[in-house]
Amino acid sequence: MLDFTEASLKKVLTRYNVALEKAMTPEEAAEELYPKDELIYPIAKAIFEGEEDDVIEGLQAAIDAGKDPIALIDDALMVGMGVVTRLYDEGVIFLPNVMMSADAMLAGIEFCKENSQVAPVTKGTVVCHVAEGDVHDIGKNIVTALLRANGYNVVDLGRDVPVDEVLAAVAEHNPIMVTGTALMTTTMYAFKEVNDKLLEKGYKIPFACGGGAVNQDFVSQYELGIYGEEAADAPKIADAIVAGTTDIAALREKFHKH
Amino acid sequence: MAAKRYTSMAYASADEMTFGVSKYPVKAGLGLEIGAGYTIPEVNYAPRPEAGASKEKLIREYERITTDIMSRMVQVGFPAVILETEHVQQMSNNPSWGAEVAHAQKTIMEEYHDEYGIKCALRHTIGDIRENRDFLQLRGDKYSVFLEAFEECAKAGADLLSVESMGGKEVFDYAVLRNDIAGILYSIGCLGSIDMELIWSDIAAIAKKTGTVAAGDTDCAQANTAMFIGGGLLDKNLAHTLAIIARAISAPRSLVAYECGAQGPGKDCGYENVIVKAITGMPMTQEGKTSTCAHSDVMGNLIMQCCDCWSNESVEYHGEFGGTTVQCWAESLAYDCALMNTALETKNDKVLRDLLMLSDRYRDPQAYVLAYDNAYRVGEAIVKDGENIYLRAKNAAIECCNIVSEGAAGKLELSRFEAKALADAKAALEALPDDMDKFMDDCLTKYQSEVKVFLPENYGF
């Protein structure tokens, strides 16, 4: 069988991911970012490791030591999740790590809520849905996990969501943003309807869209549309909105890559 | 019919395999013999979204598409073509729509065949409509409509019947985002195979009744999801070493179609088809560098190595500088086939096969395992326990790990992240039981608890 020499192979292809890999392991990088507080550190580390039982154990220890359960959401759970999302953004860890950490964080938030009479405050609410007629929801599931991981309250409407249901959720929850995902060209046209009905009812809120066959040209055709090429763009768009950039043109300028 | 399991390889060695030649060629359509010594372009397309507004608009759109492709094939002098129509949901949910599209397309193809003698066939890929908003509904009310769509299209002119079925996807989507190798094995290897046996027994019976060809399935819903999430070299969503394990596990799952009476050509986006061909000897469609209109991959040349039909996956119908999209992509596919057919006629087929394979062999672990020699080894691991859907899927996964490890000891470069994901997956696989019943029971308990949308009754449990 034909084969390359080592030298000839390099003239045909380059595995850039190997060439550019960071020197530090994910665990070493995380260790540098954990808070030093001896009650918070084990919770943050358990979040990074995606160990739900250890998260609960750490929270219980912190509550027993007098920490406020609701304060622990921001001071411990979100801090741990911040380590995870930062290392994901820097390319040190991969998505499954984020998903497992998000599961552990959500379990931790539930535990904190069960141990308090006070409702936690989030960075804002985002309404997420998969276009009407489309049942492909893995992209939406990634988006919702990443938004929650970044401190947002997510109203997850699921898949194949009728346009009017999106409108009803917007009316009920007053979100900072709506997201829509679709795999197929034939279903993504529902986004235009969502856009038109939002405008009709006077909701001028950013509508972040992405997925399978969805592209920037298409999303740019309707007034509220902002194209997200990656699921990881969703929390970044939300962060920009929370930071004060609510103008659609400005958001497009920032997030449209093509 | 019950599945007749493969327990041996169709080819005595990997080197016997090449493009355009299969052990069991398939006669189909208007004068075509697939896998009989020549490769055939298989053109795939999607209507413009607005065409779905009514049945009449949709039929007219497919008439334009069909005429465009057939005329370009004749204009540039290509002897054969297959058209693949992947149903938009309206065509499968309303079987008469799909049937009328098939009839309209076939009428045009017959005109070209009669006038110019061009050999051609029409594949219809029925949409897997067996789901509702909240759950997969694999054995529910929609099953009869699903089967009716196959039968009506077959009666109306479709020559090759396919589907991209989704059994196991609800568990897979959960597992793949959590590096859960047992869940990937359970969803594709076990749940997927169970559903495949149900549907392909029925599809093969419809093909027999209508004088058409039960062509094959693809694990698009799962292995391709893993490949797409894995993305390019710099994407950080899934280790490519895990994506190729999912692919290896998909081979025994897609094999089930042929065990239930399918004859090929297997469907284009089944990158596992090279393994399936090694086991069955049946012709396969593949896609790679010519499917960049639909998605990127890291093995665009390599995957052409043993194809019988060569596809572009899908392209939306609209205008380009060089004609409509279907004309441009059909012409590209057909030129590739002309090159492969020239290699076959001049007895240079193995040289071209090896050039295609080698150009991508070390590009990625996914490419490395699907190189025909390694794919053959995965096939051998599958047929070793061919009667047991769990063990053969597990064997495929373990052999895949072994192949990547061996490659990494040589010229296949892995990042530390990919190497760790591989080592973790291998350890997880080695910890799994040998007993299928125990594995199935454990997984049923676990995923019923963790995956809200998993309904065991979809699989007859």
UniProtKB/TrEMBL annotation, chain A:
Keywords on record: Cobalt, Metal-binding, Methyltransferase, Transferase
Any Gene Ontology biological process: tetrahydrofolate metabolic process
UniProt-listed NCBIfam families: MtaC_Meth (NF040655), pyl_corrinoid (TIGR02370)
Record flagged with keyword Heme: no
Protein name: Methanol methyltransferase corrinoid protein
Domain of life: Archaea
GO CC terms of this entry: cytosol
Record SMART domains: B12-binding_2
Organismal lineage: Archaea, Methanobacteriati, Methanobacteriota, Stenosarchaea group, Methanomicrobia
TrEMBL record, chain B:
Gene Ontology MF terms in the entry: methyltransferase activity
Keyword terms: Methyltransferase, Transferase
InterPro entries: MeOH-cob_MeTrfase_bsu
One GO-annotated biological process of the protein: methylation
Top-level division of the source organism's lineage: Archaea
Protein's name in the database: Methanol:corrinoid methyltransferase
Annotated organism of origin: Methanosarcina thermophila
